[in-house]
Amino acid sequence: MNRATTPDITIESFEAGTIDPQHFDHEAHVYLAWLYLEQSPVFDAVWRYSDGLRRLTRQLGVPGKYHETITLGWLFLIASRRRAANRPGWRASPICQ
Fold this sequence. Notes:
This protein has 97 residues and is mainly α. Helices cover 58% and strands 0% of the residues.
């Protein structure tokens, strides 16, 4: 994912399954998790993100790539970093840097 194209990654495109898997790298995964955590309480965000990721991996024919423990661990870590940073916006986030 190129940081200049970050706005192209949206919750809506993820949930609709229209994200280009070629551009859905680690940074895009983290950014999407950050978006969910920005919009929803942590447990809602975790449920929605993990559900969307399971659905996307099934759609792409690689359901084995989804790992529940790793997904939940990363989401809670990102939530913790967001809370500790107390700075608005993805660009200001220590996660992005």
